[in-house]
Model the fold of this input.
Amino acid sequence: MFRGVAAGSVVRVIEAKDLTKRFGATTAVNNLSFTVQSGQVTGFLGPNGAGKTTTLRMILGLNQPSGGTVTIDGRPFASHPRGLRHVGALLDADDVHRGRSARAHLSALAHSNRIPQRRVGEVLDEVGLAAVARRRVGGFSLGMKQRLGIATALLGDPPVLLFDEPLNGLDPEGVLWVRGLFHRLAAEGRTVFVSSHMMSEMEHTADRLVVIGQGELIAAESLTEFAARGSRLSVFVRSPDIAELAPVLAAEGAAVVPGEDGTCRVTGLTAVRIGELAFEHRFMLHELTVRASSLEEAFMELTADSVEFLAGEAR
Amino acid sequence: MSSTLTTPDRPTPAAPAEPAARFRDLVTAEWVKLWTLRSTYLIVVVTVLACIAIDVNAVHNDLTYIDHPFVPRGQLLRGATTSSRVLYDPLGSSLNKIARDLMMIAFGSLGAMTVFGEYSSGLVRTTFAAVPDRRSVVAAKLFVVVTVTTLAGLAISAISFFVTQGMLASRHLGLSIGSPGALQAVAAFALIAPVAAVVGMALAALIRHAAGSVIAVVGVLLLLPMFFGGDRYKLLKQIGNCMPLTALERLKIDPDPALHQDLGKYAPTITTAWTVLAAWALISAVVALVVVRRRDV
Done:
């Protein structure tokens, strides 16, 4: 079915236009517009409470937008009488009945969409739950439930897949497996849209990013473009002579941010140059570490103003 | 060559287009969902066995009093003779009130469970993402629940009736299904099961919470009619006549004039009683179908 997609006959895109959702006085999503292309993994990033889940629910027609529209291939998802062959979704690993077995859960869903029952066995094998398929979901760990949710999403072999925080609760092996799976699904020409509140999770998973904060779009661009937004390379310096070293570095045009216990963070100079300067002026260095501006920092900087739940100072 | 594009682990889909959406698939899905929960077996099996046992036991206990009529001192019943034939109500006794209450609570809760089970577990989002045509999902659920509870109600009512009338036959008191009012009573007693179940589904669709739904089932089906009894105020009694419980009791009455069954003032007619049962089922089904349409889940 989707192979036609892979051949490029149809472009499966998710398109949100001025999407807004208000719950009473709270605006969860505000005028959000973005597109998600096929053939790549798009990360959907934002701090807790940014409106990611609400947006995904609106894509699936589970929540009605207060304003704006969201379509898949130009059509609201809810206009399909049956959904599994169009979009596969893992919204919350707990969106299953605890009293049913994994197999029963998938079997009922397959029946509802006229998907052959053998497909249930296939997806259970694929996510590694075949051995526990007859156990009740209530006894599953979060990681096992995530795998069941992924099996649910894969059931209809859909061209568009949505995953809400799929890595939560997975063991390292599971994380690697999921990353591989997402890349494979995208390589097959599918549209893969994965939400997360952890930049580090997206770093090795996503090709493009849609970043939101407090329900508003912050960035929609490729991972490389996004990384370039972050602060420049910085170098972490620890020295007993930091008080004397700092002015020397500043004189060379570096920005020096003093830290605790004889440390500082230097931007604008390479680690090599700092080492040379310290050597020339005979300052002792205890540590000299290049801190590549991480995506995490870029993300933190961008969303700093829009973090909903800011933790208090550590006591 | 197109075959080179074929991924080895993935067989070529037989049909390129999506198969047509069929209501029957949703019924199968809901059937699987109902019977893959232990609680369904528990509720259905226990309720059917318990209700039959209650009915049979009630009549069994009556046998002693039929054989040795007990007349309280100083209170000779009007028309009482050594034969208790005229005083015993074989129809009302075989379709016991305790069994009736248990049926209404159990099947009302079963119906509610099929709906609040989706909401309280979060499964409803998975369900509606798989089948965006929400009303068809609810319609399929209604179909499955009504089928199961009708069969269960029928089993309770028919088995209770035939077993107890067989027991009473030895005292020459037994009725046949052809006796006046018998078929109607057995049918109404059976149908209270699906009516209670559909009411439970509607209440759960509105409340979407497990405990709240079950409390509402008991409150609406069993407690509410208690406020609208008596013969003093016509309006109150007429509201009471609109309750499924009152309707069932009316339909269970043995029309045998020898029994002198007192209907009281403002009693509902047979037609009214059937209409009330049908209306509760129908309105509840409509409520369950309508509330689900655009609400956020």
